[in-house]
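User: structure tokens for this one?
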Amino acid sequence: MALIELEKVSRVYRRGGEDLYALADFGLSIEEGDFVAIMGPSGSGKSTLLNLLGGLDRADQGSVRVAGEDLGALAGADLAQFRADSIGFVFQGFNLLPVLTAVQNVELPLLLTPLSRAERRKHALYALKLVGLEDRVNHRPRELSGGQEQRVAIARALATDPKLILADEPTGDLDRASADAVLDLLVRLNDEHGKTIVMVTHDPKAAEHARRTIHLDKGAVVEVVENRPAKAAEEPPASEAAAEGAEAS
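Assistant:
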């Protein structure tokens, strides 16, 4: 089942009196449970594509559907709620609040949900356990390595159990060892928890961790490379596992 469907999408920016097409008559389908890397030179449309998928930008033509929703038909509070419920964002610069602990940073997206304070904390702790940071829950960003900060950011993206994770150069600010650890974590989230991941990267080694690599140039797909086969989810989503843990206690 396709989680993402783009049909005849165009996004145009006007600069210096000229129309510049970031994406032109663009089509793409990504199945639920896929892990896709997006590569291409600067100006190829990578960032525009990620922004459209995240509801941070709008197409000038065509349709962008994520999890059955036409993002072009959503606006204001409805769009914000859809993003909060269905999409987790991971950024190159981590975007953690320095005054908050790891668990408090992970709890932030849960403030938009009806969960109680205790439930928010339970979900945040479970997300940190998923990324292997259960022993760093009370550490602030300055007390963490770059790789640990990015894992906190991934835990924050997982906190609401989103259908889709969008990662924008998630290893761009990391050394090779930390980058490999973050990529291995993304692979595990995809393999074992069935998370659908779309990752923009300039790093060919990072792209090799994805199931497919889609190469863009001048707003169009120029090549698709199959890296590894799909695998069905083996464990329940984060929210289900957290709920089961709550019932058991």
